[in-house]
Write a structure and sequence with these properties.
This protein has 192 residues and is mainly α. It has seven helices and no strands.
């Protein structure tokens, strides 16, 4: 009998802990949206090809970033509405405040890299800063999000170390593969 009471108490503690974690975590990170974002990145990789010091290559990837952002925002709105969670308060606001600064840095550095003839080095910059955004924002989300961020950062570092001509491989692995893989985990474990 004491074992059953102990098991019952542990089950209640797990429930309380999970409830408290959801109350302070931004859980609207879109799993299926991530999968779709990954699919667009794989398609973009095949269209853009290896990094080139050209406005065309840069424009193709910027267009994909705009499409991916629209997918992410739509998926977040859908997921928060479905869960009945507020989007502009509490965990969502903390997530955004931590997530956005590295993205703004990426926008600024993209302009600087493009102006100074470093377009072929943008894959490392983008992967590293997007990973930083996921890691910092993920501190206010479910555990898998900062783990995904660290994976993006590792790919970004590898892209800087590797020859610039391999940048598209890192872009496909990160913005494609990591989004799809982690998106499936998030969709399965955290409700879409």
């Amino acid at each position: 009998m004491p074992e059953r009471l102990h098991d019952h108490a542990l089950e209640h503690l797990r429930y309380i802990r999970d409830t408290m974690e959801r109350a302070v975590a931004f859980t609207a990170v879109p799993g299926w949206g991530g999968v779709l974002m990954g699919a667009t990145a794989v398609a973009t990789t095949s269209i853009a090809g290896p990094p080139r010091a050209s406005a065309r290559w840069l424009a193709i990837w910027i267009a994909d970033a705009v499409v991916a952002s629209a997918i992410a925002l739509t998926a977040i709105l859908w997921k928060t509405k479905r869960a009945g969670s507020p989007l502009i308060a509490g965990p969502a606001q903390r997530f955004a405040l931590a997530y956005l600064p590295p993205l703004v840095a990426g926008i600024v550095l993209t302009g600087d890299f493009a102006t100074n003839g470093l377009i072929t080095r943008l894959p490392g910059c983008w992967l590293l800063l997007y990973g930083a955004a996921l890691t910092t924002g993920g501190a206010f989300s479910v555990r898998v999000v900062p783990m995904m961020g660290v994976c993006f950062m590792v790919l970004g570092i590898a892209a800087f170390v590797a020859p610039a001509a391999w940048g598209h491989i890192f872009m496909a692995a990160g913005f494609g593969g990591l989004h799809i893989g982690f998106g499936l985990v998030i969709a399965r474990k955290y409700g879409g």
